[in-house]
Amino acid sequence: MLVSTNWLSTYVDWNELSVEELAEKITRAGIEVDGIINRSLGMEHVVIGYVAECEKHPEADKLHICQVDVGGEVTQIICGAPNIAAGQKVIVARPGAVLPGGMKIKKAKLRGEESNGMICSLQELGIEGKVVPKAYAEGIYVLPNDVHAGDNALTHLGLYDQVLEFDLTPNRSDALSMLGVAYEVGAILSKDIKVPAITYESSSEKAEDYLQLTVEAPAENPMYVAKVVKNVKVAESPQWLQNTLMSAGIRPHNNIVDITNYVLMEYGQPLHAFDYDRLETKEIVVRQALDGEQIITLDQTERTLNGHNLVITNGIEPVALAGVMGGANSEVHEGTSTVVIESAYFSPGSVRQTSKEVGLRSDASTRFEKGVDPNRVADAAERAAQLMAELAGGEVLEGSVVFDELDKTSERIILSPDYVNNRLGMKIPMDEMKSIMDRLQIPTEAINGQLVMDIPTRRQDLRIKEDMIEEIARLYGYDEIPKTLPVVESAPGGLTSYQAKRRVVRRFLEAAGLSQALTYSLASPKDAQAYALETAPVTELLMPMSEERSILRQSVIPHLLDAATYNVARRNESVALYETGSVFLGIERDGLPKEVEHVAAVITGKWVNHAWQGETKKVDFFVMKGIVEGVFDQLGLFEHVDFTKATIDGMHPGRTATVWLGDTAVGMIGQVHPTVQKERDLQETYVMEMNLRVILETEAEELFYASVPRFPSIARDIALVVTSETSAAALEKIIRQAGGKLLKNVQLFDLYEGKNVEDGKKSLAFSLTYFDPERTLTDDEVVAVHSKVLDALTVQANAQLRS
Q1: What is the distance between the alpha carbons of residues 225 and 342, in angstroms, rounded to a whole number?
Q2: Which of 4, 155, 240, 656 suits 799 as a labelling partner, its CA being 20 to 30 A distant?
Q3: How many angstroms separate the Cα of 395 from the Cα of each of 200, 207, 232, 602, 701?
Q4: Which domains does the chain carry?
Q5: If you average pLDDT over residues 224-236, what whole number do you get?
Q6: Is 238 exposed, middle or buried (CB count within 10 Å of its CB: 0-12, 13-18, 19+)?
Q7: Using an 8 Å Cβ cutoff, are 184 and 31 in contact?
Q8: What is the pTM of this model?
Q9: What is the mean pLDDT of residues 37-66?
Q10: Can you give the C-alpha Rg of the chain in angstroms?
């Protein structure tokens, strides 16, 4: 919102302050002033000139030699503007002037002809091109004939002005109007507000005899006011009106359109002017659009509508998009003689939806979306009628054509001073609170020690007690709130046990060579339950952005595979990623999804690639298994981990295992099924996913440290022939149970299948280490324990020693 301080001064007297002081006070009261724009920018020696003569330059087709009267002196100026002509009043920068951008004006010679200054466009005076009237957008600005050569052009253009640039929060829709800003400044400075008086003479003819109004959608349009003005003369607006609009960032068009824009900025109430004759039916019908119905808006764009869009029609076809923009078919033009002024209240939701669906946002839609003042709808129409009578010679027909089912009652809030002071930690007297409400022009009575406030409808943001506490605090002064430290028990910050363990897991995975990935928690129906450790009814979004992101995931693996596929497709063939994130398993009793944290990883390509040493190693099952074992080792849970063969959809049937923590299945690891790898154009790819919550909530055994052993250990190697289905883990478990306390370590070091081993069987070789920390073991003791181990293997696993 751009606020011209010159325009503001017509409503409230703030001139006892500097502009900088005013901006500081407004900011301290809660509306941030982003900047102050000085429109004159220190310019001098810019005057009004009269082009007495204009001839073509003999040496340049696009230049003209102009003899310009600058007030008692005629000087020669060379001008290249295409619209320069004799008899014009123009803006002249004399030699010595400095224009925006640092341009210094000096006497010069152009193609051999002397030039004593420059005839200026508005852009050269620092006015943005987008607000310059279209007629002068590509050339110099031509002033009206009633100005005098030699006068100060900056004064005539209203450029001795400073503009405040507001950064408004969404709730302060009242400050989207000059009157709203005036009320705010008046409250800050304790000044009265001068609301413009609306007086004009009406015609004997009545508006209702010219126009019939029907509102078929009262919920979206509870109030509609139409006034009719005859015999208007469409022309350029007077200079003061053009200056005012340009200071607010609005391009002038003609007097009728400019008046509606002026009232929009003054009252915050959007208006629209229809050409009465172009309506043809002399009827206005407000209704929902038909599906597929089309309208060409004022920006000359054809837009296709649907049944959610509210339109203004002539009873046959749309002539405006309600609250957004008018239609080209009813636009005011040079030949317009009768105007219909529309002022209405459109529901914020309806305008917001239409604006979004048609991809069009305007000054009008911005205000309607935030909510306009119900009690200014009719006043704004009257103000526009008054200005059309004054500035366009119009004849205002008596009365208005009105549909009105709008609730305009004030909100009443009752507030206890003790309640206010308790919330603010202050001791503001009740009289001071009432004084603040009076400054805000909020009718307030003190009844039985309570403040009873009737909130004006112009303040749509004041709804509850806390809103009023904020009003009192900001106008009393936030600086007056005492600075105190809260009296609370302090506690040192730190990670919970769960958070600390999760950090250990992440750091280990990163140290192992995996990079952390962050993927979507939303999945497609196809991937929602793929690779899930535990399935449950899926949770679908009510309003998904797309089908690919419509369901809360139950596994992290599908998205990690997507990430691996993305990288491999871009020639990053070795990928190692992990993620800790939530999966969602059905709905709990409180209506929210059950959220469980998992850790997952994907590796593909080469695990070791030392090209300069000639050493490479592809990823395999045991790389992933080693990573998983490392995680448990870091958490002190390695002794409780086990792996058993598993069959899981989407995984290789012979290279997949369930991960057990004690008696609880906590995850799975394995190779992605070859068909999935082929679909994704991946090499051998291995994944793992585990229930991180269960793992981290499992308490590790207390860690004990022992001294370096003084006594030697004794190793025995055994090669066992077993069936192909027998797992090494099962044999290791039997060995450890039978070995007792003297068996300190068991290590698998060989797997053999082939020659000298029967079909359907395999050979597994283990190294067993026996040790007693208090003495040296004898051969007889080791033989006894070792024999016990062999017997157990024979009985429990039908294992045979391989000779």
Answers
A1: 6
A2: 656
A3: 9, 11, 7, 79, 95
A4: 2-39+162-189 (3.30.56.10), 46-156 (2.40.50.140), 202-404 (3.50.40.10), 412-479 (3.30.56.10), 497-696 (3.30.930.10), 714-801 (3.30.70.380)
A5: 96
A6: middle
A7: yes
A8: 0.67
A9: 91
A10: 42
